[in-house]
Amino acid sequence: MLLARHAEAAFWMARYVERAENLARLLDVQQVFASDSRDPASWRSMLVLNADEARFLETHDTIDRASVTAFYVLDQDNPTSIISAIHMARENARALRPLISTEMWTQLNVFHRQLYALTPTDLGEARLPRTYQMVKEGCQTHTGITDGTFFRDESWYFYSIGRWLERADQTTRLLDIKYHQLLPRGADVGSAFDIGQWNSVLRSAAGYYAYRRVHSQAMSAGTIAGFLLQNRAFPRAVALCVNDIDRTLHELRSRYGLRGGAKVLERIDELQAELTGRPIEQILIAGLHEFLDMTQKSLGLLALDIAREFFHRDEAAPRGMTQNQ
Amino acid sequence: MTLASTRAGLLRGYDSGKYYCELLGSSDSPHPASAVIERQLSTISEEELRSRAAVAENDLLDLGVTFTVYSEKMAIDRILPFDMIPRVLTAADWEMIEAGVIQRVSAINLFLADIYGPQNVLKDGIVPADLVFGNPNFRREMQGVKVTGGVYVAICGIDIVRDELGRFLVLEDNARTPSGVSYVVENRRMMLRAWPELFEGLPIRPVDDYGPQLRKALAELSPTSASAPLIVLLSPGVFNSAYFEHVFLAREMGVPLVEGRDLTVIDGKVFMRTIAGLSRVDTIYRRIDDDFLDPRVFRSDSVLGVPGLMEAYVSGHVQLANAVGTGVADDKAVYAYMPRLIRYYLGEDAILSNVDTHICAEPEGLAFTLANLENLVVKPVGASGGYGVMIGPRASKAEIEETRLKILDDPGNFISQPVINLSVCPTLCPEGIAARHVDLRPFAITGNKTWVLPGGLTRVALRKNSLVVNSSQGGGSKDTWVLMPEVAKAPPGVAR
Q: Which chain A residues are closer than 8 Å to B63 by Cβ?
């Protein structure tokens, strides 16, 4: 039977890689928003979204493209940066090395070195898209190698749950960043400008053409938010991710005869009901931001339940990865 | 005609000087397989070798065959420098080393069973009682503890050197937690990838059976009758510099790699914390020193160990490999008595000789050492890793005097030995292919019987003229080949 510590490391390795990929997507779309609106203040929304504003201002005087981008890509002192996420993914992989494939370790190792070799030049406006592309591809390569080589025992289940949980959370943030964008004077909700921004959100989630297959009529905030929250076929849609967690957890419990996890399944049921129980129009009327906030909280509680029932721990944060550093 | 002038290909210009060469032998007694080896080596140019070596080192880094140095924020992975030119042992040489290692391991286990049991060896005056009882690695807690099969040392590494006459001599026994075996297996895998043509037509003993052999031995040592005993490898964790080796061994054996915090002792039994609750553990291959094993018995500040583990062990509910207290047998002072211990327990002469050793705790040894400091190697008894060693002929006047004071201050902490002119092996160096000193650490596994991994770890002192092969002192490693018996007989040009 799998060590609780290894289950936790698998869960977090997946989360950190998924987080890095989604951060690149978020920054990419933020870059588009900022250059559209020519409003440097829009970079603040990136900080607000991740609840990093106060921490950012402790070390920075101005909020602008260069400082926020550096903070989220290269800053090793910032635990919410891409480089920190990949560092933590690799440290979890190190703890998991007896279980993961050599190819998984090698790829993370090489990817990690690639990131540490990045310089401020790679964050210049012209180079930035390529840098984000490199990050996304590194993360996707990890996911592909994992899919093709990771032994399907208990640790695989925890890995998968971690990945979907993080992805669900990050998709809510991608939607939320649109909420935080200030519309320029003269542009209203539903205006061409507004729809253009929604379009960017979709594209950064790699969902534009998938959306088009479902909704061929004119774009609207409601249909796009509904697609990213409630669709059952789009791989980054929150509802699909939560369904995958549900299915995986059921399979894990029956295959290994685990008694723990009943509480987790209850929590998932509630979350599913919240997500798909009402049409998106009603959610928008009640407030999209509030809904996203609540979904993020529910996902956080879900992670905590998993930590309690399977890792035998009382907090959702990863255990002592940095204790001796 | 000197040896150097007859060389061709890669070894053109190579000169082993007055030392015994592990590939070519000496001019009086050439290595029986040297013609074959030399021809194989000449399949590529030095330039090509250099580029393949660079690729190989990069691969080791990518694959994570590394030890890790932790700084403030960063985890820096370093590789043990790897030299592409293998060290070659003939079948006949290996047969002798293997027999010698098995003999030594048997004597070490009998000695430990004796001192933690009836203590006949002390009563018979073979070894002074002070040497045992005064040794910090003697663990009184082990007195009378029943150890399955009398196997105190299930994993043993014996450091062997070769002098200028080509004689093998034992330099040190490692009976606690010998490390380095992962490099033996990984070096071979790397060589097969990087230089496959070197192996063409050369029958060499494989090395990848270590994991299964170790697992089998650990299962044989299980104290319970469980048909599938739960074996775990206990590591200090990712911050330990040998963590890669722990990962390697756990994977090769297919057993869980645990840390102290993953284990708990309940009613004298050891359990592992899993996602489904607790699982009973039968045998622990521990890579944690005695001192850190159980904070209730040994160092109370240890966070790496498992509280209550000693109680479980002493009451026979779990087996530890190696046993607690084996360090008393690999002490540099006890080492000096090994030939006598082999005779005492086995009634045989030692197959592998010791290096002459002067024990400074003994008056004659102390007097001899102090009178000949400039010609001797002086070693502290308890240290490892090549630390604190003084090599007389290479030391300055001041260093010699400093050592003299240290010895006079605490004679029992020192031994001295003559300088052994370690054998050399052709090695890729910045200035070309040159002679560098090497040693050999074969690994022996003991369950119901003792098995020795063919070859072992060849460490090479990469600095010119250096006799210290430890990785902490600028050492690297080489692939170690044990040839099948037929190789030596093949006439040149036929082996392919």
A: 102, 105-106, 109
